[in-house]
Amino acid sequence: MVTVNKNYLKLPGSYLFSNIAKKVAAYQEAHPQDKIIRLGIGDVTQPLAPAIIESLHKAVDEMAHGETFHGYAPDLGYEFLRNTIAENDYKSRGCDIAPDEIFVSDGAKSDSGNIQEIFGLDNKVAVCDPVYPVYVDTNVMAGRTGEYNPSRENFDGMIYMPCREENGFLPEFPKEDPDLIYLCFPNNPTGSAIRKEQLQEWVDYANKIGAVIIYDAAYEAYITEDDVPHSIYECSGAKTCAIEIRSFSKNAGFTGVRLGFTVVPKDLVRDGVSLHSLWARRHGTKFNGAPYIVQRAGEAVYSPEGKAQLKEQVAYYMRNAKTIYEGLKKAGYSVSGGVNAPYIWLKTPDKMTSWEFFDYLLEKAKVVGTPGSGFGAHGEGFFRLTAFGTYENTVEAIERIARL
Predict the structure, then answer these.
(1) 224 in any annotated domain
(2) Residues 6+ apart with CB under 8 A from 45
(3) Do you find a cis peptide bond into 229, omega within 30 degrees of 0?
(4) What is the pLDDT confidence band of residue 17, given thresholds at 50, 70 and 90?
(5) What's the pTM value of the predicted model, to 2 decimals?
């Protein structure tokens, strides 16, 4: 008799952004004349930079000739891309990361969900609250948690680290020592950023208790302040306790192209085993590599032309973030984020729940955001707006909200 993985049945409903899409689709069907502005899902809207398009075209042309055709990519990714990443993202910041410690993938979401596979099911997992749902859901699917607790709005057996307004939406050290610690900075969903000395404390803590930090740095391109680290490897001792996950989606607009990478240092050993070797085994078994043409596009991100063009693109989105932040502040909302991240985190007015405010904005302003409670119990009473819309739509959305 066939059985199913019953851990999936612990998950309440469908994925957060699937729920939002269903609600918006139902509203649009009932009100086809309304122009809905979507500032919910963090999907980019600006076209790929010219340097990237040029590289894509060139790589496609190469695929048309036998002498330059490429089939399966190497397990870790092509050397030209890994060398470029190591030089520009790490060595330029004083981080000693070798090209063969970089694993190229099809995106940070895949890696952040898959990385847990190399760890035992008896590991205790700590996540921020609120949190990007993938970290929690994939560990639930694997069987590392108990049942969902409706009264607490979280899972038994998972360690939650509250991120409250009074501590700048940064996590507190857990009372119970975890084995795996998920951190994301600049943070999704709150837009908060962690200072280098604060991140160093987490690295020291992880090394002291033998934990592993899974560090999601997908939004590092949006950092504007000098004392905010772009990589956890800027901290002393991070190579013996941290895995870093990166994305090309938000810094280069690759949400529809798909490219990312994970860094697993060779110095990172747990249970007497190299985690680099385990991830290499998993990666080689379950992944056939990002396409050659996409990896060439990724290489163009680091070209002088690519860097200049993407700096302008990031500035475009951060202009949106400033527009949202200042507009909501002027309208009387309590807001944070938007300085080192493309997300604005606001308090819902009049003691509305997050989903009540979602419905209110959709019905009254025709604007879509993301309910904070969808990111965890400590997200209740908050709401996330993204800066990834067009500037024109962003301005119109904030004008609509301000009129309410």
Answers:
(1) yes
(2) 388, 389, 390
(3) no
(4) confident
(5) 0.96
326 and 284 belong to one structural domain: no
For the beta carbon of residue 210, count every other beta carbon within 10 angstroms: 12
- Amino acid at position 399, single letter: E
304-330 and 391-402 helices, crossing angle to 10°: 10
Long-range contacts of 233-238 (CB under 8 A, 24+ apart): 233/90, 233/93, 233/95, 233/96, 233/97, 233/263, 233/265, 234/93, 234/94, 234/95, 234/196, 234/199, 235/196, 235/199, 235/200, 235/203, 236/200, 236/203, 237/203, 237/204, 237/207, 238/203, 238/213
Mapped onto helix, strand or coil, the DSSP state of residue 88 is helix
Residues 283 and 322 in one domain: no
What is the predicted pLDDT for the residue at 19?
Answer: 84
Q: Quick check: helix, strand or coil at residue 212?
A: strand
Same domain, 14 and 78: no
Per-residue pLDDT of 302-334, as tens digits, reads: 999 999 999 999 999 999 999 999 999 999 999
- Please list the residues that pair with 247 across neighbouring strands: 260
Tokens read off for 205 = 């803590």
247 occurs within a structural domain: yes
> Are residues 111 and 234 both part of a single domain?
yes
User: What six digits make up the tokens of 153?
Assistant: 């709005």
Query: Are 176 and 212 within one domain?
Result: yes
Q: Does residue 371 share a domain with residue 282?
A: no
Residue with tokens 């400590």: 378
